[in-house]
């Protein structure tokens, strides 16, 4: 490689290293943040499931009490009719029919409520399990960050130091164009395969590639601006 291309390559490799360490740190932090949010969501879902179960329990208790009261009233009315102590026979008969119908209705509702209680209980158990899982995931994410954080900082400091050194080795004329490539988050070094830039697929003039391969000149791709590498050949 042309010595100036070597300098660009060294700088590019240093930048790729810095980028990858920063990206690794960002990924670890992002995972921690997303697991914190997931845990909050899981707690809210668990609390909602608990509230739904409590509401169904209250409804069921209320229904049971009402059922008991109408059953008692039904039995008392029936007793009055049986022993002839009802003050008004027709009224008592209507009341008995009424109570029987209500007891029937409340019993049906009671069965439905028991089914709902089972369902709500299962939902709460599932929500609680999800919360426990979310808690473990958050702990694991924190541990992963904690296990890597100190080493990452050391590695990043070293990578930035290396970058500093290779930056100074880059000839002045290349500093602005290279910084522009970085600013645009573009690839600084591009390979040419079968006459085309692998990054943007633009055709590369054979003369240019030839000069790059013979280390006579440094050229950039007209499409993406990346510095042309001599290629595997
Ligand atoms: Zn290109």
Question: How would you briefly describe this protein structure?
Answer:
The chain is mostly helical. It contains four helices and four strands, in the order H-H-H-E-E-E-H-E. Strand 2 (192-193) and strand 3 (196-197) form a beta hairpin.
The chain-level mean pLDDT equals: 96
**Which ligands occur here?**
zinc ion
What is the CATH architecture descriptor of the largest domain?
Orthogonal Bundle
- Please identify the top-level CATH class of the largest domain: Mainly Alpha
Ends apart, CA distance between termini: 12 Å
Largest sheet data: 2 strands, parallel
Strand content: under 5%
Query: Uncertain runs with pLDDT below 50, 5 residues or more?
Result: none
The 3D shape can be described as rod-shaped
Task: Please state the structural category.
Answer: mainly alpha
Element string (H = helix, E = strand): HHHEEEHE
- CATH-assigned fold name of the largest domain: Helix Hairpins
Q: How many beta-strand runs? A: 4
Task: Based on the model shown, name its key terms.
single chain; mainly alpha; Helix Hairpins; 4 helices; 78% helix; rod-shaped; binds zinc ion
Structural summary, described in words:
The two termini are 12 Å apart. 78% of the residues lie in helices and 3% in strands. The strands form 2 sheets. Strands 1-4 form a two-stranded parallel sheet. It has a two-stranded antiparallel sheet with strand order 2-3. The chain is built from 4 helices and 4 strands, in the order αααβββαβ. The protein has 2 domains: 3-170, Helix Hairpins, CATH 1.10.287.1490; 186-233, no CATH class. The relative contact order is 0.14. Bound molecules: zinc ion (ZN). Zinc ion binds next to loops.
């Amino acid at each position: 490689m042309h010595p100036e291309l070597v300098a660009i390559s060294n700088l590019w490799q240093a930048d790729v290293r810095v980028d990858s360490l920063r990206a690794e740190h960002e990924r670890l932090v992002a995972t921690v943040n997303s697991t914190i949010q997931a845990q909050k969501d899981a707690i809210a879902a668990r609390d909602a499931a608990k509230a739904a179960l409590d509401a169904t329990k209250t409804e069921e208790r209320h229904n049971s009490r009402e059922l008991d009261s109408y059953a008692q009233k039904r039995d008392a009315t029936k007793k009055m009719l049986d022993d002839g102590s009802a003050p008004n026979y027709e009224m008592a008969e209507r009341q008995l029919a009424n109570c029987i119908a209500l007891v029937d209705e409340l019993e049906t509702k009671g069965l439905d409520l028991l089914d709902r209680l089972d369902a709500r209980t299962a939902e709460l158990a599932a929500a609680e399990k999800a919360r426990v899982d979310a808690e473990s995931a958050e702990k694991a994410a924190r541990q992963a960050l904690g296990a890597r954080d100190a080493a990452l900082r050391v590695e990043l400091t070293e990578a930035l130091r290396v970058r500093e050194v290779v930056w100074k080795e880059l000839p002045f004329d290349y500093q602005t164009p290279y910084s522009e490539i970085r600013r645009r988050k573009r690839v600084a070094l591009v390979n040419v395969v079968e006459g085309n830039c692998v990054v943007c697929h633009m055709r590369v003039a054979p003369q240019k590639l030839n000069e790059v391969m013979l280390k006579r000149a440094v050229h950039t791709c007209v499409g993406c601006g990346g510095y042309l590498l001599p290629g595997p050949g």
